[in-house]
Every structure is written in C-alpha cells, then in structure tokens.
C-alpha cells in the first residue's frame, strides 16, 4: 500500500516538472522572437551615415536617411529586402576602392539608401537593372534590363547629379567545383544539378556560360568599378549561391549616356554630296526632257545624269536568248537576304537561342540554311558566263586595261555610295560616317565598333580590291568580300582571252587549264592542311563573329578558293557564245531540255543538303577535302546546265517564269540590294531593346520587307550615282563612239567596238547594266577555239 502511494506521488512530480519545462521553453521562444525583431531594425543603422555629393554647379549637398525618408510608411521596403540591401551595402564598402573610384562608391551608396526609402529616382534606376538572369537555360545570353528607362529619366536636366550611364559587361561563368562527365547526346536527368547543364557545351550550340549583361550605374563609375558592382549583385543571385564564379570585363567604349552624338564633318559631307547629286540629276532631267539624242559632249553628259534616261536603261529588256538570267539573279539575291536575315538575327539576343541552334543543325530548314553560301557561287557562275559571252563577241579584242579600268570604276562607285566614308581625293562614303547616327540601343556600340570603326580603318583596302587578302579580321562590311573576288577573276579572264586573241592561243589554253584545275584542287588542299570542315557551316560560332573564323579567312573569302564557280560559268558562256554565233539557239529537243533542267535542279538540291553532313565530327579529313574541292563547281554546273537548257532548248514552265519581265529592273538592282541589306539587318538587330523570340514565319515576312526597302534604296543609288557613273565612264573612255551607256555609234570599218562589261557585283545580267551586248554591230564574225 505504501509502495503504491509513493509511486503515485513520483508520477505527480514528473508531470509537474514536465509542465514547467514546457512553460520555460515557451517563455524562451517568446524572448528570442522579441530579440530578433529588435535586431533587424538595428541592422539598418550603418545606412544612417551621411553621403556627400558635389553637383555640377559646385554646390555641396549632404544626404542622410532623414532627408530622403519617404512620407508614406506604407511604401517602406520589407525587412527581407532591407537585409539584402544591407548585405550589398557592406560588401561594397569592404571592397578596396581607389581614390578615383570613391565618387562611384558614394553615388552607389546613395542609390542604396534611396532604395530603402523607396525614393522615386533610386527605384527608377534600380528598376532598369536585371538583378537576376532570366531565360539563361533557354539560351538567353543577353540580360539587357531596360535601356531607355536607365537613360531617359524625367529629371536628367534638373538634377544632373542623378545622371546615370548604361554599360555592357561580358561575363564568363565558372564552376567552383568539378563538372560531372557525361556521354555525348546523353539526355539530362531533371533531378541532376543545373550546373551540369549550364556548363555543358554541345557542338554548334551557344554556350550558356557566356553572358552579356546590361547595367545602369552612375556616370562616375569606370569599368573596374562597374565590374565590382556587378560581381556583388551576381553573388546574391541564384547563380552565385549555386557556386558559379563570374569573371567580369567591362569596356568603357560600351558605356552610353543620354548625350546625343554630335555630327562630324564626314556626316555633313555625305549630306552635301547627296544633295548635290540630287540637284544635278533633277536639273539634267529637266534640261534633257523632250530632246533627241545628244551629239555634243555637253549634251551627252547632261543625258548621263537624266533620271528618265537612266530609268529607261533600268527597264530595258534585251532579247539575247538568256533572259532567264534576270529571274535567276533576282531570286538568288532574295535567297541570300533571307539567309542573312535568319542567320544574323539568330546570333544575338534571343529568348529561345538554344532551340534555334538545335533547329539549325537538326531540322530540314536548318539543313537548307547551313550551306547557304552556295547561292553566292550562283553569282560567280553568272559573272563568268556573261564575261565570256561578251569577250567572245569582239572582232578585235580591245585594250584589256580599258576593260579592267571600266570594271573597277563601276564596282567601286556602287560600293562607295553604300559604304559612305570620305577618303583622300576620291569621294568614297562608307558606313563609318553615317552608321553611328542611324540608331541607338543597348547593343548599338557593338554595331559601331564592328562596322564603323573597321571601315574607318580599312576603307582603302576595299578601294584597292585587297580586303579579302589583307587584314581580313578587320574587313569593312563582311559581305563586301565578294567584290574583290569578282574583280580579280574578271582581270584574270580578260588577260587569258587577250592572250588567246593576240596570237598566243596555246599559252592561253595552257594557263586556262592550270587555272581551272587549280580552282578545284586548291580549296580541298587547304581544307585538308588545316583540318577544316568541308564547307563553311553557318552555325552560331560562325555567324556571331565571322571575321574571327579561320575557315572564313582561309577558304571562304579568298579568290583562289572561290574561282571554280566562275570557271564553270566562263566555260558555259563560251559554249553559249559559240552556238549563238551559228544563229541557231534551239539545239536541244524539248524533252531533253526539260529533263536536263529538272536534273540540274535536283543536282543543286543534293549539293545544298549534303553540306549538313559536316555538322558531325565523324567526317574524315580526306572526305572533307574532297567535298570542298567539288561542291562549288558541281553547284555551278547545275546552274549552268539550267541556263543552257533554257537558252538552247525549250523548258516552258521554268523558262517563262525566269524570263518574266518584272525580273528585269529588279535584277539590275540586285547589286545594290546585296550591299545595302546587311546594313539594314545590322541596324535592326543592334537597336533591339530586349531579347526577342525567334519565329520562322516572322523572319520570313521581315525578309521580304527588307528586300523591298533595300530595293528602294538601290533604285535611288542607281538613278543618282551608279547609272550616271556608268554613262560618264563610257563617255570619258571613248567619247567618239558612245552617246551614253547603252547607245553605240559604230561604223562598218570599226569592228572593235567594245561592249558594256558585266554589271558589278554578284553577277551581271543582260542589258545596259549587265554587259556590253548593246554595243555590238548587227553582224559579228569571230573564230574561237577552246
């Protein structure tokens, strides 16, 4: 009985002690909660420090939290945000700032204080910064924030001490731990580390570790100070907490402020020259209105600038049996514009960049675009075809220097109007003068640096037709590599034909054979020696920076590696000239000509699609060399076969479509479109404010609007500069024979009347802009062996 009583008493004591323990724990929890709530406000005490700022007018102002405190406590930031700002504040102050960087630090600390109080100016600037990377895993490598919000502030004139600048920073992310090795094409486990996905770099896909970040900072901040600010910000993002260490580099030339770029003398000179050309053209059109063909030099020069006469030349269709060249030329330039639009737009700020890269190497459309450089070989083939046809129709071959000089002048004049820079005694305008004033945006300094600055440096190489051999890494306008190639090949063809027509046929044939064989062997040998792919793949690595590509400099832009298509065109032009001389162009029966035309199109499609095989790394060096040697001449042979089947046979549907009259003026604008469209694309993509979503239908629609705008500008260049220049060259070189470009005065005893050479640029077309056929006498006799 006593034992049971003692047990019950001990049980009561244990229950009482348990209740007391629970009460003590509850009291301790309440005390700790109170202490913690009192600690958080105390953490803001360092921000009570005053910051002294000197304004532009010399006034010294002291800012404190009391001065900048908001009138509405409801707008106060949460405790969590205050802790974040406090962390940033202390990390910035603990950096080793130099004396020159102290103004940047003071202004940044002032910004953080304003954020705590939710001051309008501070929140405005902070709101323009991308504090966290968005869409990185999908391939959005450009975190640009809001460019206009940063610079276009309502108080930029009334409070100059609050002015900011927008800068671009290049960030390279590095892991602090070792990456997990994985097999090629092995799918990712959704529960694996995201760091493995970010660090992984599949072949031909954009790297997720290279980011371009836009940041809005005080104008007093230099590049090194900006790197520190951005490093502190990134350290508190999800990338920093996951263990990614950023290497940040900021170039001061990539920083912009609200100041407007002043116009320089080059810009004003361009405007003056454009106005002068327009006034001269209008006056000459008025003076020449309703008059007959001029006989005097003065009258011919007036007629040379006549807008109506040059427009007639643009619209004139010459019936020579090769009218299909009109359609081929314009459709080719359309494909080139389409390819450049797709490629250049896909290389910069995209919200779905990884998907675009994947489609480029795996989809059917990507297979068509990855080897789209073959369309330029179509121009080389057409240029060689027309050069041969024209030169074979001279009774007595003229001075080759005259032909070369005329070709050079026509190429340079059209190029100079587009590139827009004043150079020495020759008024040549390059994009270096006007391009910086054509737009603005977070990426615009990149466009100015990549195009304008390089044109200022190497404009003279373009004029000397040497830009594809000297300093290719800094060439002015990437697309202009074609022009020196075309000119070099034209010079070689003129010299070879001149040797043949002046008593040295064996030497000419031997040299022609060497050139033809070398044009096939040399590209393959270079590809094999450097272990390059068989084709220049238009993937992300190349499109983002083509100038730095080894294959671009070694095989893509060199004349000796692009000559094979021109040689094929020259041979086919000689064949056509031979049958045209006989007077019977219908040499192929309709069934065979139709089969030949369809077969040539199929051959071209096979060559175009086969280039995607080199997306794989498994292709041997020998196979790559063999493909590099034959793919361009085979493509050109397909185009030549199509032209000859339509010219020497009858292919109803294809011939009628390619000979459609509207192609005539459009084809003559192809050279201007070729030069202009890249400048317009550059402006479009570098003035974008944010990453766009790449949509194929939208790109296709924008490409046609791009062709239209480029065509309008090319028309103005033709009427005001290119057409008058062509006519003046013909008058100056041979004033006795030429009334104007396209009108010849020939006599029966002068059988060497020269023709108009092929039009400059990506291949020529028949007619006054394309070649010299309009200057032929009615009957021509010549002998030709090949």
Quick gist of this model?
The protein is built from 30 helices and 8 strands. By secondary structure, it is an alpha+beta fold.
Name its key features.
8 strands; two-stranded antiparallel sheet; 6% strand; alpha+beta; 786 residues; four-stranded mixed sheet; globular; disordered N terminus
Q: What proportion of the residues form beta strands (DSSP E)?
A: 5-15%
- Helicity level: 55-70%
Q: Structural class, please?
A: alpha+beta
Cα radius of gyration in angstroms? 35 Å
Quick one: how many beta strands?
Answer: 8
The major pleated sheet works out as: 4 strands, mixed
Indicate the mean pLDDT.
77
Low-confidence stretches: 1-11, 34-61, 63-76, 413-428, 738-786
Supply the number of helical segments: 30
Instruction: Estimate nothing, just give the exact number of structural domains.
Output: 3
Strand order of the largest sheet: 3-5-4-6
- The general outline is globular
